[in-house]
Amino acid sequence: MEINHGYQSNWKIFSLFTIIIGLMVGVFSVKSDHLLYVGEDGTLSIVEMVIAYISIMINSLPVWFIASMVVGYLFGNNIKEGMLKGAIYTVTAITFYFLIGHYFIDSLIQVSIFHQIKVYLIWYGASIIGGCLGGGTGYLYRKSPNVLFIVLLGLILQLFVNGASSWNNMIGTAQNITFCLMTIGIVVYLVIVNRKKFTHTDFHKKNGLRRS
C-alpha cells in the first residue's frame, strides 16, 4: 500500500506540522497535569469536561505514539527517515511540554542541577525511542496494516496501567471507553483487511488452477 502524497520530501510542510502539532500536544499535555483544580468545587462545566478529556487523551502514551506514527506515515521516504522524523517530532513536542510546563512548576528550580539533567535525559531518551518506533511503524503501515497490532497492544497495556480506579471518575471513564472503542475498531479493521486479502489471494489461486 504505497502512498505518494508529495509530503515525504517536503521539509517545510514537515517542519510546520511538527511545530503546530507539537505545540498543541505540549499545551494539552501540560494542561492534563494541572486538572486537579478544576474539580475542587465538586462541579464541572461542559467546557471544562471537554478540555479535561481532550487534555488527558492527548497526554496518553498511545496518542503520543499514534502522533509519531502519523509523522512516519506522511513524511517518511523510507523506514529510516520515518524513524528520524518521528523522533524529531516527538522531541519537539516534549520540548514544548517542558517549556510551557516550566511556567506552572516552580519545584524544578528547587531541585539540584543533577536531578534536572537526569529528568531531561530520561524524558528525552524515552521520547527519541518512542518517536523512532512510532515513525518507523507509521511508515510500515503504508506497506502492511498489520503493524496496527503494536497500537492494539499499547491500548490494552494503557487500560491495564490506568487500572480499575480510573473508572471511578467521569473523565477517566471517558478515556477508557475511548481506548476500548479504538481497540475494537482496530480489531474489526484488521479482520476486514485480512479477510479481503485472503479472499483476493484465494481468488487468484483458483483462477490460476483453472487456467492451468
Task: Summarize the topology.
Blueprint: H1 11-32, H2 46-58, H3 61-75, H4 79-101, H5 107-110, H6 113-141, H7 148-162, H8 170-211
Helix pairs in contact: 1-2, 1-4, 2-8, 3-4, 3-6, 3-7, 4-6, 7-8
Structure description:
- The protein is globular and about 60 Å long.
- By secondary structure, the chain is mainly alpha-helical.
- 77% of the residues lie in helices and 0% in strands.
- The protein has one domain.
- The longest helix is centred in the C-terminal third of the chain and has 42 residues, at 170-211.
- The chain crosses the membrane at residues 12-30, 50-75, 87-105, 117-140, 147-167, 173-192.
- Keywords: Membrane, Transmembrane, Transmembrane helix.
Write out key terms for the chains shown.
212 residues; mainly alpha
What count of domains describes the coordinates? 1
For the largest beta-sheet, the strand count, sense and barrel status come to: none
Looking at the structure, what is the overall shape?
globular
Low-confidence stretches: 37-41
Radius of gyration: 21 Å
Strand content: under 5%
Helix and strand sequence: HHHHHHHH
SSE-based structural type: mainly alpha
Approximate helicity band: over 70%
Total helical segments? 8
| Quaternary structure annotation | single chain
Question: Based on DSSP secondary structure assignment, what is the total number of beta strands?
Answer: 0
State the end-to-end distance.
29 Å
- The pLDDT mean sits at 85
